[in-house]
Amino acid sequence: MNKLASKEDLKKRFWDGMSVMVGGFLGCGTPEKIIDLMLEMDVKNLTVIVNDTAFPDMGIGRLIVNGQVAKVITSHIGTNPETRRLYGEGKIEIEFVPQGTLAERIRAGGGGLGGGVTPTGGGTMAEEGKQKLTINGREYLLELPLRADIAILKGWTADEQGNTIYRGTARNFNPVMALAADTVILEAEHIVQSGDLNPDHVVTPCNLIDYILTGEGK
Fold it and tell me: Distance (Å, rounded) from C-alpha 45 to C-alpha 53?
């Protein structure tokens, strides 16, 4: 099945107030062309689940600068002064999650699990409002799963069915997010015909990808 979609095709998949998972680490592995589309549409009041808020002129940082994000669930915001400013002024809500815990919460959401337990964050502000469990004499926090309406991901090479290969560290959060959203949209740098990829190299299989936008936006 050919899943290639134009920007116009994808516009109906975004709406105000939706939740979005965004692949990437400091913008590396973030689908910039899909971010462009969201900027063009000016979708607002977004809840964004992402490792970090990148930079003001890169990745998710551009949506924040444009005032489209209401809440971010993330591990850090230190590289984006605009996020810090908006947070300090009470104009954006931020839920800070330790990086490993963030990955596990997304994995739990994708796996249909009720959550995960971790000692990370115990005794800090991260434990506020969370259930605590004592296992073998050690205290853990129960971290609830994360899912989103849409995950937007960046692949290096994909075939027309959506089988996806990532390149180097640009892989980061993309594969785990592919499991944890109702709809998954992939931006790929290279599109090849079905059967051209070595199956041993595929990281995200085609059944997890709903739509593909090429890096050129075709």
Answer: 16
What distance in Å separates the CA atoms of residue 94 and residue 88, rounded to the nearest whole number? Answer: 10
Q: What is the DSSP string of 141-206?
A: EEE----EEEEEEEEEEEETT--EE--GGGGTTHHHHTTSEEEEEEEEEEEE-TT-S-GGG-SB-G
CA dihedral 102, 107, 113, 116 (to 10 degrees): -40
d(CA 7, CA 37): 7
Burial 125-158 (b: 16+ CB within 10 A, else e): ebeeeeeeeeeeeeebbebebbbbbbbbbbbbbb
Q: Which two tokens stand for residue 94?
A: 């931020």
Give the closest residue to 52 by CA, choosing from 21, 84, 78, 89. Answer: 78
Q: How far apart are CA 179 and CA 162, in angstroms?
A: 14
For residue 185, list its beta bridge partners: 152, 211
Query: Which residue type occupies 46?
Result: L
What CA–CA distance (Å, rounded) separates 54 from 56?
Answer: 7
> Could you read off the pLDDT of 173-203 as tens digits, one per residue?
999 999 999 999 999 999 999 989 999 999 9
The residues of the chain scoring below 70 in pLDDT are 1, 215-218
Judged by DSSP in three states, 132 sits in strand
